[in-house]
Amino acid sequence: MKILVPFKSVPDPNDATFAGEAASASKSVINPFDEIAIEEALRIRERGEATEIVGVTIGAPSVDEQIRAALAMGVDRAIRIDDARALDPYAVARILRAVVEKEAPHVVIMGKQAVDDDSNQVGQILAGLLGWPQATFVSSIEFLDNKTRARCTRETDAGLEVVELDLPAIITTDLRLNEPRYVSLPGLIRARRKPIEVLTCDQVGVNVRPLTTVLAVARPPKRPAGTRVESVEELITKLKQEAKVI
Amino acid sequence: MDFAWSDQQRELLNAVGRFASQQLNYDVIENDREGIFNHEAWKKCGSFGIQGLPVPTEHGGLGMDPLTTVAALERLGYACKDNGLLFSINAHLWTAVTPLVYNGSEAQKKKYLPGLCNGTLIGGNAMSEPNSGSDAFSLTTTAIKKGSRYILNGSKIFVTNGPIADLLVVFATVDKTRGTDGISAFLVEKNSPGMNVARKLEKMGLRTSPMAEVFFENCEVPEENLLGKEGGGAFLFTRSMTWERGCILASAVGSMQRLLETCIRYANERKQGGQSIGKYQLVASKIVDMKVRVESSRHMLYYYGWLSGHRKSVYLEAAMTKLHIADCWVKCSEDAIQIHGGYGYMTEYEVERELRDAIASKLYSGTSEIQRNIVASMLGL
Fold first, then answer.
1. Residues A55/A38, Cβ–Cβ less than 8 Å
2. Dihedral angle of Cα B301, B307, B308, B313, to the nearest 10 degrees
3. Of A33, A79, B2, B8, whose CB neighbour count within 10 A is largest?
4. Ranges of CATH 1.10.540.10 domains, chain B
5. Alpha helices (runs of H) in A104-150, residue ranges in sequence order
6. pLDDT beyond 70 at A24
7. CB atoms A185 and B49 under 8 Å
8. Surface-to-core class of residue B46, CB atoms within 10 Å of its CB (0-12 exposed, 13-18 middle, 19+ buried)
């Protein structure tokens, strides 16, 4: 079985630098949900159910560090679609469809969303474009019937939902699926010998343009400092007249 | 001179920083209070690759050059707040691992190095004795050859990793009349009959790095565990000490950088008299001094690493590097407390611990006075 894992490079959520102010200064990492997808693919391979894991990402050469991190975790080879534009979910899904058609994986496992824009759309749109079944927000994956079907547990607001789907399929990962391993130095050194294939959109035969444009990114307004009241009466008056909540 | 890192080095350093900040900084305050060694963090460091940094790849290491190694340890010190853990790693690397790499037989390397690299084995050395510290070669522990074994007798003190070590490099004399030429090194495994790891020693700082007294009472060591030549212990010790002096405070440079950033943040946030305290020249001046200390320490460290990697003599530079960084680390920690005022003295701010941890750097691996003696002797004094 071949697994394709699309992943996105995002600003490090543990780095306090505000991306809107100094995007170039902040460190990038693999989107944490995609890291969970990579980990799951590795575990599937480790239990003998997959033979190859291919990573794919879209971006400028600067994302190669995240590609090598994925390779260092254990991904066999990687593809970078060389496109530095800020693409929206529809454009990303169309590029990924072209990669899926080229690679013909048995299953695509990817994060449910990226932590930078929180769109939560690419997996779903990709499934729609391919006409494949999908299981989103997944917290467990099990393959059935000689790996022609998968049983997945989905985390929904109503509770845990168990679905079965035919392969090939799209599976998007939720937080509780696993805890990703860390990139080790020996892994990083091995990763240098693994191939990264760089392709343009033209080469995979897709022409995309973003349908949405980001106009501005701003910090949420600062919360004003609180004030101390002298008495309960004053508090009640303020709640009535200033806050107007009672 | 080229001060730029290659892409590969930068990637490695970033990976070290990310690993350490995410995996090693839990329970540090409690472990410091209780004097608990974080064994799980040790194992993580092993599987991540820290303990194998300077070890050739054929023995399970990463084969990194000295400059990359010290830079990686610096990054580790920046991202990991558990100085005791780092001290244990340093003791392991420079007093057990490097002597094995340089002086071990093929069989010894094969037997011990992979485990020492991957985190399953912990190493250390036993040199200091109750009556021989700075004058290390006046040791009195004896090793008498009896058939195919050496019989060790004597006592060792300040044995870093003593309570947790799987393998100790023990220095003893095969013949006191031979003086320095009688000193030999032995690989002694944990639970060897006749070796007794006695009381754990309570310390001011580096409390998460366990230390003990170790006694040898007719401790039998097979002759194949002689490390290097009989009588070659002093040379071996001097070489491993040079490595140790050059590298052991690499993580301290990272600690100082972290302290500096903590102080800058605090000086900008903390307001007194209607302005940030960083606007007061007396505070700013302290922070400037910290910055200069970090940078000068880093330059000495990298220069040592560069020289060592180019196989040039580093005897003098290692001593100067150790002397300078130890001084800077203690002064930076003291300034950091002063900048934080009363808060800096409080455990939860994690600044006071740094001073307690830093002070030992003027004592271990040769006191600052011994480093000065070395420098003076190299200057022809």
1. yes
2. -120
3. A33
4. 7-122
5. 122-130
6. no
7. yes
8. buried
- Report if residue A61 sits inside a domain: yes
From the list A182, A144, A180, A176, the residue with the least C-alpha distance to A163 is A144
Residues of B (25-54) whose Cβ lies below 8 Å from A: 44, 47-50, 52-53
Selected from 3.50.30.50, 1.10.540.10, 3.30.110.30, 3.20.20.70, the CATH number assigned to the domain covering B7-122 reads 1.10.540.10
Q: Which amino acid is at B193?
A: P
Q: What is the pLDDT of residue A134?
A: 97
The verdict on whether omega for the bond into residue B114 sits within 30 degrees of 0, i.e. cis, is no
Query: Dihedral of CA B221/B153/B202/B247: which sign?
Result: negative
Q: Do B53 and A184 touch (CB under 8 A)?
A: no
CATH 1.20.140.10 occupies which residues in chain B? 249-378
Closest CA to B49 of B40, B62, B38: B62
Q: Which residue has the tokens 């080790």?
A: A184
Q: Enumerate the H helices of A116-224 as residue ranges.
A: 122-130, 185-191
Number of domains in chain A: 1
Amino acid at B354: E
Whether B244 is catalytic is yes
User: What would the two tokens of residue A225 be?
Assistant: 């400092």
Query: Does residue A90 lie in a domain region?
Result: yes
The tens digit of pLDDT for each residue in B287-330 reads: 999 999 999 999 999 999 999 999 999 999 999 999 999 999 99
Boundaries of domain holding A203: 2-213
- Give the distance from CA A166 to its chain's centroid: 23
* Domain B249-378 listed as CATH 1.10.10.60: no
Closest CA to A186 of A14, A71, A91, A49: A71
Residue A67 in contact with partner chain B when CB distance is under 8 A: no
Residue B76 has pLDDT above 70, yes or no: yes
Nearest Cβ partner for A184 among B14, B48, B53: B48
Residue range A104-145, pLDDT digits in tens: 999 999 999 999 889 999 999 999 999 999 999 999 999 999
Please report the ipTM that was assigned to this predicted complex: 0.84
Q: Is residue A218 part of a domain?
A: no
CATH number, position A155: 3.40.50.620
pLDDT in tens, A82-97: 999 889 999 999 999 9
Whether A101 is covered by a domain: the verdict is yes
CB-based contact B59:B65 (threshold 8 Å): no
Q: Which of B14, B21, B47 sits opposite A184 (nearest CB)?
A: B47
B22 vs A contacts (CB less than 8 Å): 14, 182
CATH architecture of B124-236: Beta Barrel (2.40)
Identity at A12, one-letter amino acid code:
D
